[in-house]
Amino acid sequence: MNAPYDGDRGQGAAGGSTPPGGTPSVPTPEWTAPAGPPAPHAPHPHDPYVQDAYDHDPYRFHDLSSQDPVDEVLYDRAAHPPPPPGTEPRPLYQQPAAPQYAPDPRVWAQTPPPEPSGPSRRLPYGDDARTVQFTGVDDLVTHASEGKPTADVFAHLYRDQQLQGQSTAAPPAPEPVEPDVSEEPVAAPPKKPGGKASGLLKSSAVMAAGTLVSRLTGFLRSLVITGALGAATLGDAFTVASTLPTMIYILTVGGGLNSVFVPQLVRSMKNDEDGGEAYANRLLTLVMVALAVIVGIAVFLAPLLVHAMSPTLANDPDANSVAVTFARFCLPTIFFMGVHVVAGQILNARGRFGAMMWTPVLNNVVVIFTFGLFIWVYGAYSETKMGVDVIPDEGVRLLGAGMLLGLVVQALSMVPYLREAGFRFRPRFDWKGQGLGKTVGLAKWTVLFVLANQAGVVVVTQLATAAGKASGADGAGILAYSNAQLIWGMPQAIITVSVMAALLPRISRAAHDGDPGAVRDDISHGLRSSAVAIVPVAFGFLALGMPLCTLLYASSGPEAATGMGFMLMAFGLGLVPYSVQYVVLRGFYAYEDTRTPFYNTVIVAAVNAAASALCYFALPARWAVVGMAAGYGVAYMVGVGVAWRRLRNRLGGDLDGAHVVRTYARLSMASVPAALAAGAVAWGLLALLGKDALGSLAALAAGGAVLIGVFYMAARKMRIEELNAMVGMVRGRLGR
After folding, report:
1. Mean pLDDT across the chain
2. In which region does residue 63 sit, left (phi positive, over 0), alpha (psi from -120 to 50) or beta (all else)?
3. For residue 462, how many other CB atoms are within 10 A of its CB?
4. Which residue from 287, 390, 563, 612 has the fewest beta carbons nearer than 10 Å?
């Protein structure tokens, strides 16, 4: 047992003790407790209430540092005799030297480290006093009138664009210019704010505006075409012929050109001594030669191509004649498509982004003027009911020439921009040994991706034209399907694409840095942000698809407009998985994975083709294409399930699914009563006022107002955070 406490306990512990009947222990260096307040359990000699208050505590004097093995009961002195004094070169129980400013548990008041230079004071939570500003009452009063700008919620977009616009090489320093003392000094003009980032933001705004205007004029173009040709066999024949050039271009040159040759073009412009001009001339020459050969073969095989796209039209002599004539006028546009794409990418590599987005507007304007001229000469379809058996040959040639002229104008309008950028086209045929052949193999997955997608388009085109002809009704064929799909896809192109255009640079950098958590968060943010608009719009198509189509396509006749309205309603809810699929696939592209999107596209195309075939054989001809429109959304639901699972595994098993599903479910719950109320109002007004332009406009306006109002109130009651954030952002932008 340890000796009872006395005033010399500290001295005895420090200087050693002598056990009964044994040798003295080795003395340890003498240590004297520093001056300070007494220990918390030490009895106060002048306070009778605390005297002997802690005598019952067995651990009161249990000091491990002062124990001696000789005092222990189990210590065997015979087996382990203590060494005689003075035999050890150093003491056994020497306490380590305490650092100058380290915490000492034996001392209450620690020695503080020296204060840093400058006005500051120490913080108790590890903050560096040299980097922390302390603000007193006087400072608060002094700085109260200083206005501080509110943080912009889109500041990360600026940083993303700024990082993209930064050059790897530092710009050369300007040579100093000696001032002319004979002239009076002239004030330097103020610098324009923004720099490269501002210029890139401006270019992005120009591109976005050009894309929006191009889509709007393209929508007007579809309205004029439908008004001129109707949505029956004549319109289907024109749709098949005008679809062929785009399909052949993408299958042959377009996919590889965009995915492989263009990145190498940009790389050559950065690395080659001539700024990549020689490579650009070789590429443009190669594309022009290849496309010229493809156009010659396609024009010669136009009847076979029409038959492959639609055997139903090919078996009708009048429809086949019109479709083949249209095709032979439209197929040369393949050449000008390729020229326009290569020229646009050359300009993009030189920092000229506007021409690529704005020149398609000229094509749409030319086509609108051509079909408007056709309506002015021959009349609208609603008046003439013109079919493939009565359309004049001059009318067919007029429309075909207008389609070709539109692409010619679009391609030639790039020439002034190229000259302004300093590019001069000189044909070069020295293709061998320049690396052009190796790049073809890199486009394998992209070409297969396009092939799978276009295979599904061919199946749907064949079945839709057959169903439209078998039904004998207007608005039941491929033209009605294409028009409804065009309206249905516009929210996706404007909302989801815009959201992901802002997030994709961040996702790509996070994937490159190996940060799956950041990729997951950005994908989740993109899904939830776009859902705020996509989900109610999808239910809006279901409720208001009929008055929307009867208003826009009134010139094609009430029967055709009604058929397109039913197709738009069938497409409606498929907009949600279609948008989700687009966002999820951006995650694979951020990891530079093109194989998984290819497999996903094969699955979607196969399900779409199977669903279309099932609708064609199971439904009446009048409703077969409407079922195909619904099957399109079902195919993307399957595709989303596959892509979601693969991306979740890619990110370590977590894609924030619970948060995303909860947001979509709550938005859907808010959209259901809104769609029911809006549909009841719209269909009631259509029944009361009729399906003409006036009645459709009233039904669309009233139904849209009810849809927005009910959805907003229901969503606010549910406190959907994404909607609240969007409303707050809009109010902030409006200054309210």
Report:
1. 74
2. beta
3. 22
4. 390
Give the count of beta carbons closer than 10 Å to the beta carbon of residue 512: 11
Tokens linked to 511: 């994937």
Show the DSSP H helices in 591-656 as ranges: 595-618, 621-650
pLDDT in tens, 382-427: 888 888 888 898 999 999 999 999 999 998 998 888 888 777 777 7
Tokens of 536: 């109610």
| Pure H helices in 657-692 | 657-689
Q: Quick one: DSSP state of residue 503? A: H
Q: How far is CA 595 from CA 53, 100, 332, 568, 581, in A?
A: 80, 63, 32, 32, 15
Q: Please state, in angstroms and rounded to a whole number, the distance separating the CA atoms of residues 363 and 217.
A: 9
- What is the phi-psi region of residue 592: left when phi exceeds 0, alpha when psi lies from -120 to 50, beta otherwise? left
Buried b / exposed e along 408-426 (16+ C-beta atoms within 10 A): bbbbebbeebbeeeebebe
Question: Among residues 2, 83, 9, which one has the least CA distance to residue 42?
Answer: 9
- 10-47 b/e with 16+ CB inside 10 Å = b? eeebbeebebeeeeebbebeeeeeeeeeeeeeeeeeee
Query: In the predicted model, what is the mean pLDDT of residues 679-706?
Result: 90
- The contacts of residue 29 (CB under 8 Å, 6+ apart) are 14, 91, 94, 95
Amino acid sitting at position 243? T
417, amino acid identity: Y
Q: pTM for the complete prediction?
A: 0.64
Closest CA to 248 of 418, 458, 390, 480: 458
- Give the list of residues 6+ apart from residue 18 with CB closer than 8 angstroms, or none: 24, 25
pLDDT of residue 259: 53
Helix axes 317-330 and 302-309, enclosed angle (nearest 10): 120
User: What is Dmax (Cα atoms) for the chain?
Assistant: 133
Contact (Cβ atoms closer than 8 angstroms) between residue 440 and residue 283: no
H or E segment to which residue 454 belongs: helix 444-471
Predicted confidence (pLDDT) per residue in 149-164, tens digit: 433 333 333 344 444 4
